[in-house]
Amino acid sequence: MKLELRGITKRFGTFAANDHIDLTVEDSQVHALLGENGAGKSTLMNVLYGLYEPTEGEILVDGRAVSFRGPADAMAAGIGMVHQHFMLVPVFTVAENVALGAETTKAAGFLDLEATRKRIREISARYGFDVDPDALVEDLPVGVQQRVEIIKALVRDAKVLILDEPTAVLTPQETDELLAIIGELKASGTSIIFISHKLREVKAVADVITVIRRGRVVGDAAPSAAPAELATMMVGRPVILTLDKAPAEPKDTTFSVRDLTVVAPNGQRVVDGVTFDIAQGEILTVAGVQGNGQTELTEAILGLAKHAAGSVVLDGKELLGRSVKQILEAGVGFVPEDRSHDGLVGAFSVAENLVLDLYDRAPFARGLAMSPARIAAQAKEKIEEFDIRTQSADVPASSLSGGNQQKVVMARELSRPLRLFIASQPTRGVDVGSIEFLHRRILAERDHGTPVMIVSTELDEIMELADRIAVLYRGRLMGVVDAGTPRDVLGLMMAGMNAEEARAAAAQETEQPPPAGDHTRGETHG
């Protein structure tokens, strides 16, 4: 099936999320749509899938113009979509989820789930999915849940399958399996639209790459194009993709976490006996698929977790049990994963957000009165230093793009003397060029002698910044390993193996003896 988008424009008020986009997907082709977060990729696919009505332009299927009033129309035309956030009912079985919205019935109107089970088994066997039709979705790993979403589309005879950021919640091994599945789907005649901002995966899977920047197509590229060339197309200027990082020179260990446990309201241990240290002048990165306790770990350190036990010690002083304000005053800088909810006050100006931690002390305040002149001077300095794109320091923070909001948070937290710096998803929603700058600032904080802890779901970022890597799985620490640990070992740890098991399994796969164990500080096995 050939799919064409001609002059697609989607406006929200005066903002054009998509601006006269042309795109052609040929039969049995993997067409990658590459662009930064906020470039307009997902909006375009929501138009194609019938979730948005285009402001202008037309969609053609095999040369015939079509109009979609909703996803049902798109599916009837042979277009399926796997969203970045899965659309599954956790308490339903695989078969019930697949049947939902396309139910077949027996005589007397009873649901015919056996027919759905048969189709699931057929598709699983054809593509090697290994999905049990009677398994509860909530019991399945995220990689298998994604296969269920693909099965849902294939059961409805999708000829074009849209995959929106499909590797965002996968381990490296699950990513490799997905790329292999995409190859099988292509070979069977299915076309794939692969939406991503990850250069490595796009180059591995695509037949052709279309790059979108700020809602417009800036050009097509072959998979053989150099990563630097693709990054330049995405950002609009040359970008350095590798971080020039000298080896760490750790000094005293001033931050220690011992047997930290956080219990959720339902009684589940979302952080389960975690122990590690960070020395002055080193970066510990925390890896893991999203939802394995990373958020609760950082919240417990900052004093936000209500039911936390164990010990969190900075400079010889216990932090657990102290208020957030006391912990910040102890010298902890913190960049939360959700900047709009936890990192900024959207209605406050950029200048005010840049002093949220310091507004009540000198030089920004004297007694009960704040100093507008000093706050304005601080804002001017940080806007220039961090290249925050804003009309002025007086506009509300909510008016900035996501990437510039992130720069405001980073600028604020790195603008005071720190004894510990923690950043969760520090470059989420930030363009490639700004990532380069923020990584250098994080590295500068390390070289200044600050213990640094970075939490990220981007494995490339984890490996780029790390001096050591801690891996979390279901709230437990699978190990703390050297920065040079191979991706396949890290992937196995992210899937639940401890460090020794992962090394042995990875070595067995390559038929080589496992390397000697790391002799790194604080290594703990789950």
From TrEMBL:
<feature type="domain" description="ABC transporter">
    <location>
        <begin position="3"/>
        <end position="239"/>
    </location>
</feature>
<dbReference type="GO" id="GO:0005524">
    <property type="term" value="F:ATP binding"/>
</dbReference>
<dbReference type="InterPro" id="IPR050107">
    <property type="entry name" value="ABC_carbohydrate_import_ATPase"/>
</dbReference>
<keyword id="KW-0547">Nucleotide-binding</keyword>
<dbReference type="Pfam" id="PF00005">
    <property type="entry name" value="ABC_tran"/>
</dbReference>
<feature type="region of interest" description="Disordered">
    <location>
        <begin position="501"/>
        <end position="526"/>
    </location>
</feature>
<keyword id="KW-0067">ATP-binding</keyword>
<protein>
    <submittedName>
        <fullName>ABC transporter ATP-binding protein</fullName>
    </submittedName>
</protein>
<dbReference type="InterPro" id="IPR017871">
    <property type="entry name" value="ABC_transporter-like_CS"/>
</dbReference>
<dbReference type="InterPro" id="IPR003439">
    <property type="entry name" value="ABC_transporter-like_ATP-bd"/>
</dbReference>
<dbReference type="InterPro" id="IPR027417">
    <property type="entry name" value="P-loop_NTPase"/>
</dbReference>
<dbReference type="InterPro" id="IPR003593">
    <property type="entry name" value="AAA+_ATPase"/>
</dbReference>
<feature type="domain" description="ABC transporter">
    <location>
        <begin position="255"/>
        <end position="499"/>
    </location>
</feature>
